[in-house]
Specification:
The protein has 499 residues and is an alpha/beta fold. Helices cover 33% and strands 20% of the residues. The chain contains 15 helices and 17 strands. An eight-stranded mixed sheet has the order 7-8-10-9-13-17-14-15, with helices on both faces. Helix 4 runs parallel beside helix 5 and helix 12 (396-409) packs across helix 15 (486-496). The longest helix has 26 residues, at 166-191. The protein is elongated, with a radius of gyration of 24 Å. The two termini are 35 Å apart. The relative contact order is 0.12.
């Protein structure tokens, strides 16, 4: 990834160099602190010429403003005052980051003429700047300046956010940055090529969370075989890279409190196995571990902000490859639960991994609830596109809390049905169940399959195939790997489950 900007907070004072960025609400005027950045009143001429009214995401720029020592003066629209919320400030931070360009010294005046800007608002503004600034450029050894010449590497910007309560903003930003760092970790994991990030390497990355106080265990193939994880191991047997099951525990709540649990599909590359995928677009299957990436990023966020909750994160890391030892369509495997599965399609492998991971999680930790995340089906993209993740749940309260958290974080979910009529589609003549249910309702039958491994524990399944990778760029994400799920689940825990 690129070097991220450094951010600090300070009291209001007219900047003396570099770039100044001010905020203006729709139909509003410059605040006093913003006006101090524009002694020559350059904006008074620029606003009408640019037809700038403060609409959300709009901007106007003045270069070398008259009567000012600044290089650039930028106004960014904050939108309507009454519509400003937590996500609005993240988006506004993203709009600010879009105006940084090659600036090194940047002052952002977090003051509005017609609305109060709290310390939390300033912190969310800063978080939005960082989220938008992310780019995965780890493997670029040469950058073109657009004229066929090698560009000079840009220095990371030093951003000072001026606000009414810089001490409070700094404190609030510590928590916000913990979540940002979790999102960045998830994005990095999804963006990494599969030749670099295999199951073993993924487990090694997860072990790094021990520095934050997370207890991390890594189960090897031998240990999983002893536990009877035939469903997960069946997926892994076609790859020369051995599987891993990673168990992450954060103990921030009371000792006797049951943990909340998150389970992620970690298929580091999915060729489809013997039921091989088409060549076109197969390169995107390096991101088929987006669920595991989100769980790892979430555990980072919870630990880094010292969340007052007991949380478990479990990720099943495997590679699904074509090989003489790969499982075949028609094979029957025995899951950890003892239930048998007829594998009719080896490309429906994520549910096999999750079946054993969910059962293990439930059996060992007896959690308050379980939420699994998986880039599970293309069918969910047919149903919902790439703006919502599919939500399936056996518990209305958990589903409702997830929907509310989705609206607040704008990592939105849409509840899909479950029912016995769908369940019948995965009954098998030769085993307890089969791993596909036919052409129709593919995302639903996949969820019905998973439900057979959760008993009566409150559970939700998030199908993030359309949102974790290749989703549309927005104000706070310009990356192929979005890190979807980290902010959603952190919001869920913050709002409903912290002591």
């Amino acid at each position: 990834m690129t070097s991220m900007p450094t951010i600090s907070f300070a009291k209001f004072a007219a900047p003396k160099k570099g770039t100044a960025i001010v905020l203006v609400t729709e139909g509003g005027s410059l605040s006093a602190a913003a006006g101090a950045c524009d002694p020559g009143m350059a904006f008074s001429r620029a606003f009408p010429v640019a037809e700038f009214s403060g609409k959300s995401g709009s901007s106007v720029e003045v270069l070398a403003p008259e009567g000012s020592p600044l290089d650039r003066l930028v106004a960014v629209g904050a939108g309507k005052t009454g519509e400003l919320n937590e996500y609005s400030w993240l988006k506004l931070g993203g709009a600010v980051a879009a105006q940084l360009r090659k600036a090194v010294d940047v002052t952002v005046v977090a003051e509005l003429a017609d609305a109060e800007v709290s310390a939390t608002d300033a912190a969310n503004l800063a978080a939005g700047i960082l989220l938008r600034s992310y780019a995965f450029e780890k493997y670029k050894t040469r950058k073109d300046d657009g004229n066929g010449k090698e560009a000079t590497p840009a220095k990371p910007a030093k951003i000072t956010i001026q606000c009414a309560d810089p001490t409070g903003a700094k404190k609030a930003f510590a928590n916000a940055q913990a979540v940002v760092d979790g999102v960045v970790l998830a994005r990095d994991l999804v963006n990494e090529p599969a030749n670099v990030l295999g199951p073993v390497e993924f487990a090694t990355q997860a072990k790094e969370l021990e520095k934050l106080g997370v207890k991390v265990e890594v189960l090897t193939e031998k240990e999983m075989k002893k536990l009877g994880m035939g469903a997960l191991l069946g997926v892994a047997q076609g790859s020369v890279r051995p599987p891993r099951l990673v168990v992450m525990q954060w103990s921030g709540g009371k000792a006797k409190d049951k943990p909340v649990a998150f389970v992620g599909k970690g298929v580091v590359f999915d060729s489809g196995g013997v039921s091989i995928k088409p060549a076109s677009g197969m390169e995107d299957m390096k991101g088929d571990m987006g669920g595991a990436a989100a769980v790892t990023g979430l555990m980072h966020a919870l630990a880094a902000r010292k969340a007052k909750v007991n949380a478990v994160g479990i990720i099943g890391c495997v590679e699904n490859m074509v090989d003489g030892n790969a499982q075949r369509p028609g094979d029957i495997v025995t899951s950890m639960s003892g239930q048998t599965i007829e594998v009719l399609n080896t490309d429906a492998e994520g549910r096999l991994v999750l079946a054993d991971a969910l059962w293990y999680c439930n059996d060992r930790f007896e959690p308050k609830f379980m939420i699994d995340l998986a880039t599970l089906t293309g069918a969910i993209m047919v149903a919902l596109g790439q703006n919502y993740a599919g939500l399936f749940s056996n518990n209305d309260e958990l589903a409702g809390n997830l929907s509310t958290a989705g609206q607040a974080s704008q990592e939105r979910v849409w509840r899909m049905p479950l029912g016995t009529e769908y369940d019948k589609l995965i009954d098998s003549k030769n085993a307890d169940m089969k791993n596909i249910g036919g052409r129709y309702g593919g995302s639903i039958t996949a969820a019905q399959f998973l439900q057979r491994f959760v008993k009566d524990t409150p559970w939700a399944h998030l199908d993030i195939a359309g949102t974790a990778m290749g989703a549309q760029a927005n104000e706070i994400n310009q990356s192929w790997g979005s890190g979807f799920g980290v902010r959603l689940l952190d919001q869920l825990v913050r709002d409903h489950y912290e002591g």
